Amino acid sequence: MISRWVLRQYQRVFSLSRWMRLHFTLMGKLCLIVCLMAGVYGVDTKASSTYQLFVFVLVILIFALLGSVINRLQVTVQRKLPRYATVGEPFTYHVTVSNRSRHGYQDLVLIEQLSESFPTLDQLSEFYATKNKRWYQQGISFRHWLRYLTFQRGASIDEQAIANLGVQQATQVNVICKPARRGKLKFSGAYIAKADLLGLFRRLFFVPDHQSCWVLPKYYPMSALALQGRRLYQSGGVSLANSVGDSLEFMSLRDYRQGDALNQIHWKSFARHGKLIVKEYQDEYFVRRALVLDSELGLLEAEVFEAAVSVAASLVITERQQDALLDLMFVNQQAHRFTSGRGLDHSAHLQELLASVQASEQSFSKLTELVLAHAQQCSSLVCVLMHWDTQRQTFVNKLIAKNIPLAVFLIHDGSVTKGELTNTPENFYLINAQNIAEDLAAL
Questions:
Q1: 94 within a domain of the structure (yes/no)
Q2: Which of 56, 77, 354, 46 is nearest to 188 (CA)?
């Protein structure tokens, strides 16, 4: 009960602070500070004349507030976002501000707004992993509350000045955005701020414009893995292979069965016989790689999981250059398996999936069942793990027993050395979460 009351006070303090930050200009903030200090030192009007300064500055601020009320503005905002961005790397997008009124404007300010919502106590406890800590470590300070709100917002965008906006004209503003996390970046709209004649207080005009773009995980250049995987038969035939496997070879005609693809119907035979007949092709054999991402964080820090996602994203980019299909397997709330390759899906979709994946508890058993169920279809496997316990070692040994080429990437926080680990496979790589670029470049 006390914690929830504290969170409500955080919300009130933050709302007041943001209101003042958005509405007062720099000069207005200075006048407000002078007014407050003069009010404090001028309480005793007989001992000091500072109260005169207080009254003077207060009257100026009141006139600035009243002057901003009469401001009128009719504008539209059109934002042009890129489809993808990368976490930690600033990108520039364009915003077109159009004037729909019969008056020109000077010294406007564009303030972009990202979607946000105040966090609950459960969300904060899960984010900072306070549930398993001692009682004096479970408190959430205002600094932590602000840090979570910044993380939820997803990016930082500075205010952009618009010097002049002519009558019935439009101007293009270049905005720099720096994503702070992966996932979907959601824009709710933008404020156009217009200051009063004194330049102390701004009136805000909100223009709704809901848009979003994907912030992909950070990836690092690395060499392709030398996993000798042979071509295997894949059920699904030509519709699955689609020029990845052997060359297409027509074999025969047969009657249509439910589930056959429409592009396999032989329309000349349909016109001749009046029933659906489909074409059959030879069985397809091609290389199919699997990328397995362990999402069970355990007691590790969230930075280790983010590093694991970045390593997986780097592997997806590297495998895109290979003539093979790629299966991405992970567990979010349930086990997932997505296939990418020429004619099926683009690797950018796998990047979107990696951008949205979250750590989950006790998920490795589900991941083990998923991988072993499809292991016979895979020419090779790449596992990105965060632990090297008995469960993971047993899982790796089962894959080795199936004679499937295997590579294992173990992400750690810097407290593990390869000499301390036992029962490691041949292609085993230790990746420090703090030195991902160096470790991947050294492969």
A1: yes
A2: 77
* Contact partners, residue 188, CB within 8 Å, separation at least 6: 113, 114, 115, 208, 209, 210
Shared domain for 277 and 299, answered yes or no, is no
Per-residue pLDDT at 314: 93
- Cα–Cα nearest to 236, from 223, 245, 249, 225: 245
Same domain (yes/no): 166, 145: yes
Residue 225 lies in a domain: no
Kindly report, residue by residue over 241-296, the tens digit of the pLDDT.
Answer: 444 444 455 556 778 777 677 777 877 887 788 788 887 665 566 678 889 999 99
Do residues 207 and 144 both lie within one domain?
yes
Nearest to 218 by CA among 31, 53, 433, 388: 433
Contact call for residues 55 and 132 (beta carbons, < 8 A): no
Write down the pLDDT at residue 247.
44
Cite the DSSP H helix spans in 284-443: 302-319, 347-356, 364-374, 390-401, 436-441
- Give the domain extent around 80: 2-216
- Cα separation, 205 vs 102, whole angstroms: 17
Q: Is 78 part of a structural domain of the chain?
A: yes
Environment class of 49 (CB within 10 Å of its CB; exposed 0-12, middle 13-18, buried 19+): exposed
Same domain, 165 and 311: no
- Burial string for 171-207 (b: 16+ CB within 10 Å, else e) reads bebebebebbbbbebebebbbbbbbbebebbbbbbeb
Q: What is the count of structural domains for the chain? A: 3
Cα–Cα distance measured from residue 103 to residue 100, given in angstroms and rounded to the nearest whole number: 9
152 in the same domain as 32: yes
Q: Which two tokens stand for residue 329?
A: 């397997």
Q: Is 212 helix (H, G, I), strand (E, B) or coil?
A: strand
Both tokens assigned to 229: 């995987």
- What does the pLDDT look like over 44-99, one tens digit per residue? 777 778 889 999 999 999 999 998 888 888 899 999 999 999 998 999 999 999 99
433 shares its domain with 326: yes
Query: Does residue 239 fall inside a structural domain?
Result: no
CATH number at residue 343: 3.40.50.410
Which helix (H) or strand (E) is 26 found in, with range?
A: helix 26-41
Q: Are residues 252 and 361 in the same domain?
A: no
Q: Give the residue, 344 or 95, on which the prediction is more confident.
A: 95
Distance CA 261, CA 269 (A): 16
